[in-house]
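User: Before I run my own analysis I want an independent prediction to cross-check against. Here's the chain; please return only the structure tokens and, at the end, one sentence I can use as a sanity check.
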Amino acid sequence: MQRWRGLEDIPQDWGRSVVTIGSYDGVHRGHQLIIGRAVHRARELGLPSVVVTFDPHPSEVVRPGSHPPLLAPHHRRAELMAELGVDALLILPFTTEFSKLSPAEFIAKVLVDKLHARAVIEGPNFRFGHRAAGNVALLAELGPSYDYEVEVVDLYVRGEAGGGEPFSSTLTRRLVAEGDVAGAMEILGRPHRVEGIVVRGAQRGRELGYPTANVETLPHTAIPADGVYAGWLTADGETMPAAISVGTNPQFDGTERTVEAYAIDRVGLDLYGLHVAVDFLAYVRGMEKFESIDALLVAIGADVKRASELIGAYTG
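Assistant: Structure tokens:
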């Protein structure tokens, strides 16, 4: 998959293409449906498919300080889009100047002049241009003038028998923040992932016999609610079952919120300085302060056992 940053990175000889535009944070199942349709339509037309997204998140430029928690960094989104068969990813730097483009200017500058769109595939709630004034109706209205077609793909709905809420990044962020990582997984189609570099912490886990990878998470990461979780730790190409702790370590009166993953039954791991991924499968329990270290050790033992059971049941 080709990756471009900014309109100037698009090859001068780029021909016609099938395009979809959006933040696509998380590349959840609703996003997968839209992107998958764009890829399919591109193949029908014998053209490349292009996903257009933005950095930073538009809300951070329009309303500074309002950057939403991120479900996936750009490199992870690119990986997921490549798996869906996307041919090119265009990341547009979202600046104050760019935010002032009218919807018509956005269409002309991005879709027509640079990407030569033959078809544009979007969800029903797609908005674009200055003050988000553009919508799919306007996109379709201007299509004949610029010789592109527009297809609107309905989003999935969460819940049985079509009930509940449409799959969305906003809903996924809320579920993650509440610790409902199983609900988030239903929307994402995979466990929610947190990434970062392993740094040295207080090393209390090592002293207690459960050494953990203390993950310094990437900026704006969507981190689950405080508690203990079952999941996986991926480091240096290896994925290991893990018991994961999120919180301030109240047993030792900690104040800094951390994500720590214990690779179950692994001995002698040295992960310091490595970029790792932590995938959250299931919630085990809330964060607690115990009466003694012995009581804490009993609880950790039970957590590890429960995490192993949940992971085993999932992998079957």
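Sanity check: The chain has eleven helices and twelve strands.
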